[in-house]
Amino acid sequence: MADRNVKILGIAGSTRDGSFNRMALAAAAQQLPSGSTLEVFELHEMPLYAQQHETPLPAEVSDLKAAVEGADAILFATPEHNASISAALKSAIDWGSRPMGHNSWAGKVGAVIGASPGALGTVRAQGQLRQIMAALDMVVVSQPDVLIGSARDKFGMNGSLVDEKARALLGQLMTRLVATARALRQGAAQ
Ligand SMILES: Cc1cc2nc3c(=O)[nH]c(=O)nc-3n(C[C@H](O)[C@H](O)[C@H](O)COP(=O)(O)O)c2cc1C
Q: Which of 9, 61, 24, 28 is nearest to 181 (CA)?
């Protein structure tokens, strides 16, 4: 049981063509420890959160909740919008926490990465996102920081992460994320 493949769900808070954060998720998929996989859930079709639409849940929201519940770990790649996470990501997170009493994020192991053309590399958004994750009862793996600042210089023309230091940090974070998910699963099985 403890050796079963660890399934990571990657969610980027941007739907932009050429999004650095979607590229960062693709880079994370290249740095996985053995025995783990990463699938990406795209937010293009997600409606904006609205409580009056909770019953029944929109199909896209049910898809998101099923993907989260079927994963062992969550990897968020967050843009920074006005010193916070993007509206698209917050809305998706809010949907996943609803309806009341059916919080799909609860108990999931999660980590955060982020990319931005600016120098700070989403540090403010990442701090806020970790607070939100704690409020959702997620188990947050917070080190090492993967802050991909000056993103235009860190990704190549084909979208690959060419910065060696960022790639190494990404690998370390993925290793810790998978190890934590395994440890939790092992604990739960005992
Ligand atoms: C509304 C808005 C606000 C932004 N605010 C910030 C910011 O506070 N800090 C930052 O580093 N970049 C900021 N940016 C620039 C984004 O980091 C940049 O657009 C980035 O490429 C978004 O991520 P993506 O490439 O995954 O779409 C902002 C962009 C937008 C559209």
A: 9
